[in-house]
Amino acid sequence: MSTTPPSPTGAEPTGAEPTGTSDESSLGSSVESSVRIGALVPLTRPGWVEAGQHLLAGLELGVREVNDAGGIGGGPVELVVRDTAADPERAATAVDELSRLGVVAVAGEYHSVVARAVATRADALGLPYLCSSAVLDALTGQPTERVARLSPPQSRGWRTYADFLLGAGHRRIAVATQPGLYWASGTRILRDHLTPRGGTVSELDMSVLTPAAVCDALAEQGATALLLLVGTPEPAVPLVESVRRDGRLVEVMIGAPAGQPEFAEWALSLGDHGAGIPFLRYLPERLGPLGTRVEKALRERLGASPSFVAFEGYDTVAVLADVLRAHGTDRARIAESWPGVEVEGTRGWIRFSRMPGIGVWQWAGPPIQVVDRDPAEPGRFRILHTG
């Protein structure tokens, strides 16, 4: 298996200055003084590859800037990347490998069930883990001091989405679901929040229903909103196409709280059908000076508008660099430092705290938006609700 990840779309051409990304072939004596950070990202199917590319672009940009500023203790930061391919077992094995290679911490990951496997294994090994972009509330089976997270917990984000539905007048909600902890958790959060407020949530199991059968069920139930709690491109793309073409369902809003429409692949797959589908993203209404500068650099690196996931990657390195400068590279000291973090990120000041029901150190303040692609201009995002 190749350990060198593919470059993000639009990444720097061959001959550009190195960013500090390595595989084990480059971890010889020439970098014995480097500070190694393990990076876990989905870069091949069935992982969400575009999300992984954006996350890696943010991580690499952060590392490059740290090294341009002198590194850590005079030595460069070395990003040791492993592709998780959305496979929890593969990710846990990668954590073992990275620990043996001497990384001071692991970071990254987008898929929640994979991040849970990473957090569990890292905790068992005494290895600090900073989760960049996974939202599952139960990131670990029990509370731990070694794991911290930048992305908001799913319960906060999806309750914000439920409030948006209520404010838009939607009470009869259908969710197209697939088996899985993340989707089941999302369904439960929506139902628990909507039911006491007069809403109903009915489940349509995409493991047994065709898109045509889902359309029939929507028409029969009189649902006003269909939420896509499913993977992309399958079965999300054909389901959206079926609903959009069904004359009985022209008034049904399609929603995607998991964020599928954030990425260019969605727009390329669905064209105009992919617009007007509200989803969650974690950006402020306006970026400050740091965020604006980083956005420009990420855009140049990716050759496209950066998603919130790319900003999460950059902020991950900003936090780790601050911790390493202040506390050194000892794993135990890094883990002990999470509650003292106070770092300017691209989307606000980052501080970790304990939140009820969350077993890891959590940034409580990431911004949350419900946005969609403007049907009149699908390349432009409209902010519909903030939380």
Structural class: alpha/beta
State the share of residues found in helices, binned by percent: 25-40%
Report the portion of residues in β strands. Answer: 15-25%
Output the number of helix runs. 11
Within the largest sheet, what's the order of strands? 1-3-2-4-5-6-15-14
Average pLDDT level = 93
Let me know the CATH homologous superfamily of the largest domain.
Response regulator
Element-level helix/strand string: EEHEHEHEEHEHEHEHEHEHHHEEEEEE
Low-confidence stretches: 1-19, 24-31
How many structural domains in the coordinates?
2
CATH architecture of the largest domain: 3-Layer(aba) Sandwich
Main sheet, how many strands, which sense, barrel?
8 strands, mixed
Q: Cα-atom Rg, whole angstroms?
A: 21 Å
Give the terminus-to-terminus CA distance.
Answer: 42 Å
What is the CATH T-level topology of the largest domain?
Rossmann fold
Compute the number of strand runs.
17
CATH classification class of the largest domain:
Alpha Beta
Keywords: Signal
Pfam families: Peripla_BP_6 (PF13458)
Protein name: Amino acid ABC transporter substrate-binding protein
Family: Belongs to the leucine-binding protein family.
